[in-house]
Design brief:
The chain is mainly alpha-helical. Helix content is 61%, strand content 5%. It has 28 helices and 10 strands. It has a 4-stranded mixed sheet with strand order 6-5-3-8. The protein has a two-stranded antiparallel sheet with strand order 1-10. It is elongated and about 145 Å long. The two termini are 24 Å apart.
Length: 727
């Protein structure tokens, strides 16, 4: 929330010259100053002439390396070497002694089932048993198993093969793909040994050896089918261990093919350029850019280009403020504060760079939290995107990863601050921000990004904690600089124990009771339409402090005798009107924020003091005088200019009038609230505020509901009009 500002730079210009030029020119100067400051912080290095080359052409001059650099392997070559390293890893297989017994038991079940079926139903039973086992046998194979003697001999052959061959180590067809090296590590419990891969049996090898003793092709084919249904491999790969060891082997492959030393020739004059020379040149360019050295450009030209880029990005931000946050753009103090926060962010980033910290440790949390507390998450997210973009266009930070990490963490900080009111909440949004940073860093780490995860996370977490705490600590300074009143400050002023409130409770207890009830009503109404309930509460607390000057002249503080009965209506009206001016004086003496002083000035708008105007007219008519000047019976205004001050005007009148009702039924309360809303709107009191018809309807329903639930009696002022001096 922003207070009133009288600075010429913070008033909307009425003419292009000179007000418009001064207004927008001052903001342009701030923009250019920041853009130039970034160039000073991150200057383009002295340009190095490298040149552009194409394969097959002849170099017109030699290119000599001015720094050491490395030439990386091309992706295909690196991938091939890594695959070869992974394939060379000795795979580990786990030996399962129980596989022999499991296979024998399975064979026994199959042959037992076939024997029983053959005894009962002959060949038809054998066929059915084989089909149930998933074996599609020929008529000859069925005939073999139908004969008990041949079936028994076949069973014995199978058992002998299993007992003799399975202990050698049998690998399933699926696991055979793990046999990429010449040797295999076999783990048997706590014992491990390395054997030749050729000494192991694949399933095919096992079948071939098992059938070697059978001369009958039909029996051999049948036994192969039976073994395939029964075989339990005795060797299974240790998939997790193999994957880990292969990953280690892949990562151990050097990504650098060779290095070039300072002073070494990269390209020689009058020699043909080949693909290898092109790789050296590109690696040299990348190294120069990484250390902040301009390539194929002068230092001056590079800095001019950087200045233009910075200015364009900041100009986009300025235009967005102009169209979508005009109140902030109109306030020169606010624009200067945003520029100052951006500058502080980059100055801190320069210091972090000097510590050789990773670029993602830039203190984006400081910027996001500070702006979110001042002006909300939307503006903070927009500023975060601009700040991140400005960061990665500087040569030391050129990285898509840096942009994504900073934007994610900064946006999380901006959106998690929300309505920050208590100091303890600082750690809540610090935790949310740190979690966002950790998540995106982990995602890049899993993608294989070139970063040390834990050290980087440590830098980022430290930057988040320090940045957020500094931002909260600087909030009072930023409030003073911008004239913005944050929720933390409002929460402090919305304290019934502050000096003015304590005076009100003692010297004007009726007004104090009315203030508390109106604050509850206004806060409920504001929250119902998405306004600031806290601002309404704090504003209501001070709206009637001017009554402290003459509390007994206001009906809620009277106990029987009404001093207005002894006064001329004009004098009475002046006393009521003056409580606004007196309230402004008292509030400013207590250094109440200007945004709350607005509630004092605007809660009556410029509406008529109808009760005493009516009395003055009757008195003038009785005495034969001219009718009184209506302007003498009107508040000075201004009319409410915000949703919150308009809500307080309506709540103030509704609460006062509701107390005067003799029988506060729901129907009478509804009629009363409708009448007050219609009167305020008809008198033009709501013309200058942004309340919509939908807002008014929501407020009307909420007020009736609240008053019905919380209404308590009040002595009515004589007559049918609302009580003079109430509200």
């Amino acid at each position: 929330m922003e207070g009133s500002s009288r600075s010429p730079l913070s008033r909307a210009p009425e003419r292009v010259w000179p007000e418009g030029i001064l207004h927008h020119g001052a903001r342009l100067c701030l923009l250019l100053l920041l853009a130039g400051g970034l160039v000073v912080l991150y200057p383009t290095g002295p340009g190095v002439k490298v040149g552009r080359y194409e394969a097959g052409t002849v170099a017109d001059r030699s290119v000599i390396a001015q720094v050491d650099f490395q030439v990386l392997k091309d992706s295909a070559h690196l991938r091939r070497e890594r695959d070869e390293a992974a394939d060379a890893v000795t795979p580990t297989f786990i030996y399962r002694p129980s596989a022999v017994d499991s296979t024998l038991a399975s064979l026994a079940r199959i042959f037992g089932t076939i024997d029983s079926a053959a005894s009962l139903e002959g060949a038809a039973g054998t066929t059915a048993a084989l089909s149930a086992a998933g074996i599609d046998a020929t008529a000859e194979e069925v005939d073999i198993l139908s004969g008990r003697a041949r079936a028994a001999r076949l069973h014995e052959t199978a058992k002998a093969a299993v007992r003799s061959l399975a202990p050698l180590g049998v690998v399933s067809p699926e696991a055979a793909a793990e046999l990429t090296a010449d040797s295999v590590r076999v783990a048997d419990g706590t014992d491990e040994g390395v054997v030749a891969a050729s000494s192991l049996l694949t399933a095919r090898d096992f079948y071939d050896r098992a059938l070697a003793t059978l001369a009958d092709d039909a029996e051999a084919s049948l036994l192969r089918l039976l073994l395939a249904r029964s075989l339990t491999p005795s060797l299974v790969p240790d998939v997790g261990r193999n994957a880990r060891e292969r990953a280690v082997a892949r990562n151990a492959v050097a990504i650098v093919e060779y290095g070039i030393l300072e002073g070494e020739a990269i390209v020689r004059a009058n020699e043909r350029i080949g693909s290898e020379e092109l790789r050296k040149v590109e690696a040299y360019r990348d190294r120069l850019r990484a250390i902040g050295v301009g390539v194929d450009s002068s230092n001056v030209v590079g800095n001019v280009g950087a200045f233009v880029v910075n200015a364009m990005l900041l100009a986009i931000f300025g235009v967005l403020l102009y169209f979508f946050r005009p109140r902030i753009y109109c306030s020169f103090r606010a624009v200067a504060a945003v520029v100052g926060v951006l500058a502080a962010y980059h100055l801190a980033g320069k210091a972090i760079g000097a510590l050789e910290a990773p670029p993602v440790a830039m203190p984006i949390a400081f910027l996001s939290v500070a702006l979110s507390v001042l002006w909300g998450g939307r503006l903070a997210v927009l500023a975060t995107v601009v700040a991140c973009t400005l960061t990665v266009v500087q040569e030391p930070f050129e990285s898509v990863q840096t942009f994504v990490v900073l934007m994610t963490g900064g946006s999380a900080a901006a959106l998690s601050v929300r309505a920050f009111r208590r100091l303890a909440q600082t750690w809540a949004f610090i935790a949310i921000t740190a979690l966002a940073f950790a998540t995106v860093l982990l995602a890049f780490h899993l993608q294989g990004a070139d970063m040390d995860f834990w050290p980087t996370l440590g830098w980022v977490a430290g930057s988040t904690v320090v940045g957020a705490i500094l931002a909260i600590g600087f909030v009072p300074v930023l409030e003073l600089a911008t004239g913005v009143v944050t929720d933390q400050t409002l929460a402090g002023w919305a304290d019934a124990n502050r000096p003015l409130m304590r005076r009100l409770a003692v010297e004007a207890p009726g007004t104090f009771a009315h203030t508390i009830q109106t604050a509850n009503l206004a806060e409920a109404g504001a929250e119902a339409i998405g306004g600031s309930g806290l601002l309404c509460r704090a504003g209501v607390y001070y709206h009637d402090v001017g009554k402290l000057a003459q509390p007994r002249y206001f009906i809620e503080n009277q106990d029987g005798e009404n001093p207005h009965d002894q006064l001329d209506p004009a004098q009475s009206a002046a006393i009521l009107r003056d409580h606004v001016a007196e309230g402004v004086k008292l509030a400013r003496r207590e250094r109440v924020p200007e945004v709350l002083v607005d509630f004092i000035r605007e809660h009556h708008g410029d509406q008529k003091i109808g009760f005493f105007l009516h009395g003055a007219r009757e008195l003038a008519e009785a005495e034969g005088r001219d009718a009184p000047d209506p302007d003498a019976f009107r508040y000075d205004g201004p009319r409410p200019r915000t949703r919150e001050t308009a809500i307080v005007m309506l709540a103030d009148s509704c609460e006062s009038a509701a107390r005067a009702l003799g029988s506060p039924t729901e129907e009478r309360l509804t009629e009363l609230v409708d009448q007050i809303f219609a009167t305020k709107a008809g008198d033009g009191q709501l013309d200058d505020c942004p309340l919509t018809f939908q807002d008014l309807e929501v407020l009307r329903r909420r007020f009736v509901s609240f008053l019905r639930a919380s209404y308590h009696g009040r002595i009515a002022y004589p007559g049918s009009h609302p009580q003079p001096g109430g509200g």
